[in-house]
User: Fold this.
Amino acid sequence: MQRLLVKVLKKMQETRYRDRNGLEFVKYRLRVKVEGSAIGALSVPKAVIGKETTIGREAMLPWGIKTRDLIVLDPVESARVLQPRKPAVDLGCTGPGRVELRSGDPDRDGYDEDVLANQFLAAVIQPQRGARLLSLKDCSGHDRFASPFEYIMAGKYILLGGAEPVLFESGSPGEIWKSEFDRGEPSVSDAAVEIDYSRRLKEPKGVTIRKNVRVSSGFPGTIEHYTVSYAGKKEPAEGETSGQDSGDGVGDGKKKEDRANVTFGVRMSTRSDGDPVSLNVFELPAGGELVRVRYHRPPYGRRWRWRDWRDEHFGLKPGFLVARNEGDGRAMAVLFAPGSGCLVAVRSDYPGPEVMIRHAPRKVKKGGRTRFGLAFLIGNDAVSTSASMFMGSVGRGGRGGVPVALTLRTARRVDAPRVAVRTATGRRSATLTAVDIPGAGRVHTKTIMLPRAAFPLDCTVRAGNETLSVRLEA
Assistant:
């Protein structure tokens, strides 16, 4: 929730009173004008600057409130200014077999976000904040990301939640997290909805980042494809050289190759369900074994001071990680290029566990580009091994039944894997279809329709010599 900084224009005293301790207070009616964001690093819509509104405040005497004082509006007051009488955007799933693109302001920051939805999820993209994936909700309304809008690091970097792209050479977290991306013309069909976002960065100079987001019918996730291109530096004047070091410590006068070093990453603040205890567990296939990392917040003591700043680093060659809630089983899987030199860091932070996926550095020549891909899948249950991940996702039902997506990611060689589905009314099977995700590798997936009476389900698949099973409730 964006909060606003306002200047007091007029004040009217309403009442004065003493509390039971004998302290004297006064209640005011204030006319105020918007100066900007309460957090200077964030922008607000231009139309909001200079807006006036009336609010109530009280203060202890003899200090009181004076005209020209600067004060911060609370979330309700800020929302009234940013979003007056504007209907809320629908964050629900669609009916089976449909995709939709919606526009609105679900986080009440004064900017419109894009909501891409299918029968399994609603994904919120925030163009004005780095085109981040702000929210990823299932059909029951459970979000996989935290939204710690007001948490501030050193007064400048605000954890806005969701999944944000990072270019490390620009200085982490760089400018991307708060930059407004240009929004391309969306493509909407019966099968999928996708949008392009782009931003030419100030630092590093000459670098442009483009992000394509796609949500398809029947696929329980979002697919993100990034292109980082480098236009090059300004050409030196005639006769000038870069003085590149030839290796012996002396500039040899040769022209230095113009290229940019790019290290791409995505930072995520996963959701902490179950206050005051975080029930997040991360399942990471690293070093030939499955590593489980738990960050359970203690239910007592000085919780606000409890941090484990120790980074857990893993190289995940199978190209996936799973974040799962041990209380209700709901899970999110992130897919990235297998064997691409990704490094995953997990740490505990104030709003909940934080994950960083960092790719190996790449060199991009002038006029060149490099690409990265990710997919975020959500499910009602998931199981992992050191080489494979199997997830089951239950979508929004309709007259034709309830959609169930079964998804397998594995480093093993498999050909048309079959899933045995044991239902409350009998047995059936489904053959998974291979889908290649740009920049994130291959998954095998299938969506089937089942009557509500068929639940609960037990779904089992074999991947090489492994057997993986999930259990799904309606």
